[in-house]
Amino acid sequence: MEYGDDLYEEFSNIWFSFTGSPRKDLKPWHWKNCKISFEKNPDDTIRFTVKRTKNIFLENNTKVRWDKKQGNKSSKINKYTLHYVIHFDVKVSLLPNMVHDEKIEEQLHGKKGITEKRDCWVLNLDAQHKIWLWKDVNNEAKNIMTKILESIKLKSTEIRDSNQHFSPVEVDKGQIKLSGNVQPVIYHPARDLSGERVRNYIQEIHLAPSVNNNKILVTIVYNDERLRENGWLDWIYRLFRKIRHGRTFDVESFSIVLEDGLPTKFDFPNIYSENDKLENDRTHYNKCATNINHFFSNQLNRPVIFINTSNHAMAGIDNNINKWKIEYRIWEKQCPIYFGTNSRCEIEQYLSKYGIEPLIRKCNDSNYFSCNEKINKK
Question: Cα–Cα distance between 154 and 126 in angstroms, integer?
Fold first, then answer.
C-alpha cells in the first residue's frame, strides 16, 4: 500500500478505536474525525490505513532558526497542523461480516473523566481495532458503516500477485508531473514524542546538495534522544553526547541519490535501521544505494523515509506498522518545523552555541556523503 492522498477510496469523519492494550485498567483509546482506507495485500490480509490531523498552537517564531529566535520575545501564536497515520493488517478470515450495535463511552485518547455510554454502529476489524459512528435518527450512520463493510468484502475478494505493485497508479516518469524540487516525506513514530522528561520531536529538516549535484544530504535535527532498550544508560549517554558533540540534540543525516535530477536510491551511512523497531536504541547499520520503496502520492520528487528506532535509525520501509506516526510534509506552511538548506557542518556549528565546546571540532561535509556497507555495526 502506498502513502499519500487520493490514492484509494477513503471514508471520512469516522471514529477509530484501539482496544488491545494488555493492561486491563486502561480504557480503549478513541480518535474522532479519522479517514479510513484499505487495500488487499498479497498474503491474504487487508491493510487498513487510518489518518487524522491535529492542530497545535505555537509561538509564531517556532519556525525561525534557533539562533535568531532566541532574541525574539513575541508571544503571538500560530496554528500548525500535525498529520498522523497508522496502518495495520487484518487476516481476511477475521474480517467482520456484519455491522453491530454497541454502547461506547466517548473517552478520547489523552482525556480523563467518565462520560455516559451512547449507542453506535460498529465494525470490529479484529480483536484490537474497531471503527464506528454514533447512531442517528435517520440511520445515516448505519448506511455509512454498511457501505464500508461492503467495500471491505469486495476488496477482500481481489486476487493480488505478490509481485504486483500495491499502488493503483504505476510510478512512471512519463505520466507523473513534478510539483517542485525534491521534498522527502518523513514518518516519525508518535510514541517517540511522549515521555516525562524527553520529547523527541523533530526541530529542523535540511537539504544540501553534493558538489556534483548527484546527491542530496538530508539532515534531521531532533530535540533530543532517549534510550529505551538501555534506559538505565540514558543519563550516561546524554553526558557523553554533551562532551563529544557539545550538545544533547540528536542530529542524523542520510543521502538521496539522484538520477536525471530525480530521487532513485538512499544512502544510510551508520544510521540504517534494517529490521529494528522503536524499542531498539543501538542500531547503526550501513546501507548504500538501496532502492526507494515508496513515493508520497506517487510523486517522484517526494521519496518516503521512516524513522524506525529510538536512536533514529531509518529505512525506506516501516518497521513499526501498528504505531501512530507523524507525517512531515515540509512543503506545507502549517508543518511545525524549520526547513532549511544548511550542510551538516553548518548545522553542527550553530547548534554548538547552545551547548559546550565539543571534544572534537573537526567536521567535513564530504564524509557525510560517503557510504560503505563493508563496515556494519549495530
Answer: 18
- The backbone torsions φ and ψ at residue 312, rounded to the nearest 5 degrees and listed phi first, read 65, 35
DSSP per-residue codes, 233-250: GHHHHHHHHHHHHS-SSE
| Cβ-Cβ contacts under 8 Å for 333 (sequence gap 6 or more) | none
Structural domain span for residue 322 = 185-369
Q: Which residue has the higher pLDDT, 130 or 227?
A: 130
Query: Which of helix, strand or coil describes residue 148?
Result: helix
Percent with pLDDT over 90 in the chain:
47
In a domain, 5, yes or no: no
CATH code of the domain covering residue 91: 2.30.29
The b-or-e profile of 316-333 (16+ CB within 10 A means b, else e) is: bebbbeebbbbbbbeeee
- In sequence order, what are the residues at sequence separation of 6 or more whose Cβ sits closer than 8 angstroms to the Cβ of residue 234? 226, 227
With respect to residue 67, please indicate whether it lies within any of the assigned structural domains: no
Whole-number CA gyration radius for the chain = 22
User: Is residue 296 predicted with pLDDT exceeding 70?
Assistant: yes
Distance, CA of 348 to CA of 356 (rounded, Å): 12
Give the total number of structural domains in the chain: 2
Quick count: other Cβ atoms within 10 Å of Cβ 345? 16
Q: Which is more confident, 302 or 169?
A: 302
Q: What is the C-alpha to C-alpha distance for residues 279 and 119, in angstroms, rounded to an integer?
A: 38
